[in-house]
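User: Fold this; tokens only.

Assistant: Input:
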Amino acid sequence: MKLKPLIYIAVGFALLWLSKRLELHGDLAPIDPSGVSPERAKYHIAALVALLGAIGLFIAALLGIFRGFRR
């Protein structure tokens, strides 16, 4: 097996960890009395982007592994 899929998996887990931490920061941000808190939304959107990046890296790693087995 090549090293590239392993690096993708490691970075994917790092992004998964980062996503959890950003989500917790968003949960702890102050709530705006008007209902919508831009600070909370900022952290939750960043967590979503990190999570989507992690999913993309896991898919890229799986494709790399399966392509390596086909050769």
